Amino acid sequence: MRKILIVEDEDILRETYLMIFSTQPYAVDGAENGKVALELCNQKKYDLILLDIMMPVLNGVGFLENYKNTINADTAIILLSNLSSGADLQKAAELGADKSFLKSDLSPKQLISMIRYELEAST
Amino acid sequence: MDKDGYIQTWNKGAEKNKGYKASEIIGKHFSTFYQQSDRDDKKPEHELAIARKLGRAEDEDWRVRKDGSKFWANVVITALHDSSGELVGFAKVTRNLTDRKEHEDSLRQANRLLQLQQKELQQLNMSKDEFISLASHQLRTPATAIKQLLGLLLEGFQGDIPDSIVSVLQKTYQNNERQIAIINSLLQVAQIDSGKVVLEKSNHDINALITKTTDSLSEIISTRDQTLTTDFGSSRAVSNVDAQYIRMAIENIIDNASKYSFDGSDIHVKTEVEGDRVIIMIRDNGVGMSEGDMLHLFEKFYRIPNDLSHKFSGSGLGLYWVKKVVELHDGTIQVESELGSGTTFYVILPRAK
């Protein structure tokens, strides 16, 4: 089963994403900030990481600065960002994020088809 | 005055000004008119010394009347010489400028007050921007979660739903979309008002940017049976811009043009290079607007009341934001419109050398 990590600090959004992906044949973990995500990335190899940018403790940019040292160095990363994260998005792209989507743009179906597409691309 | 500063002659004007009769003051030293503190500082002697040396001394300060009251005076002391050039005394002219002084003081005070108020307003404006930004951030997460959760229901993830409920959910979904659009506009405007927008400028072919924009809008425009046509002049229309911002600005204007045009109409985008300027024209044959509305078009929260404006959600922030973005690029935006026959927007950007 393909493994996905969702890094999102807002409980309600993380839970909603987990709910959406529970309808699919994926094993999904959630992390509430970049630090927790890095700990998970040291233990488990993921096929895809969905990453929020603005988070407490360690934000998305902080995660991207460190994940290359984990066993997930070559895992595809998709940013789920907000409109206001302009400058950070640029930085994130330089640090290896593959794509970015606006959180409020995607419906569950679009989210799933985007992930299916990325997982196929990464195989 | 004699050469030591003792008063020799006295006129009516001086009497009126200072309250002394000639008999009371002739023979007295002119330092009588100075405040005690000035006398202690030897100011009268100092002024005489200057007049003696330079021929003239002028001062503006408080002077004292017979009754002890003060008045603001302009005093000119001029040295008088005889035919052989010997100093024989001084002429002193005192003008009462109390009224002027009071006016100046009250003006200065009013000015200080205005500056203070201006500072307070600036601070209020800043905290208002921060408040809008903070509130919008807080509102966005639940609004996005609602969108996803409604999506789970509407897109069938939770099984079949009766049609009667689907229509309610769809209305909820549409209003949630509207809410998200308003929150996003508020955030964009708060960001641009705070002056924190950093443009990532590089040279871009404006025609290529417009093509990308019209491509992404074609779907929504065709749902209204409208057509979107372009006409790019032969010259290369290159401008130094932040592509993302300019695209969003053009998208905003085209989307407006479409919203305020009836189904089946045409929206035309044309570019021209004119000297050192790139001109983007976005023309519709929609509802148009009155001259009065045009005056307020770029104001925050202004929405033009017409047959179509109630049909679409809008925050009244779009064109305000667009104008700010264009101005950040050293460009200008203009509008021509006529009620009932349509509107043309002109976005004028500096052409890259």
Can you tell me about this structure?
The complex is a heterodimer of chains A (123) and B (353). Chain A is an alpha/beta fold and 123 residues long. Chain A has helices at 11-21, 34-43, 60-66, 86-94, 108-121, and strands at residues 2-7, 26-31, 48-52, 76-81, 99-102. A five-stranded parallel beta sheet of chain A has the order 2-1-3-4-5, with helices on both faces. In chain A, helix 2 (34-43) packs parallel to helix 3 (60-66). Chain B has 353 residues and is of the alpha+beta class. Chain B contains ten helices and ten strands. Chain B has helices at residues 12-18, 22-25, 36-40, 43-54, 98-154, 163-193, 206-223, 243-259, 291-296, 318-328, and strands at 56-64, 70-81, 87-96, 202-205, 227-232, 238-241, 266-274, 277-284, 332-338, 342-350. A five-stranded mixed beta sheet of chain B has the order 5-7-8-10-9, with helices on one face. A three-stranded antiparallel beta sheet of chain B has the order 1-2-3, with helices on both faces. A two-stranded antiparallel ribbon of chain B has the order 4-6. In chain B, strand 9 (332-338) and strand 10 (342-350) form a beta hairpin. Chain B is elongated and about 115 Å long. Chain B starts with 11 loop residues before the first helix and ends with a strand.
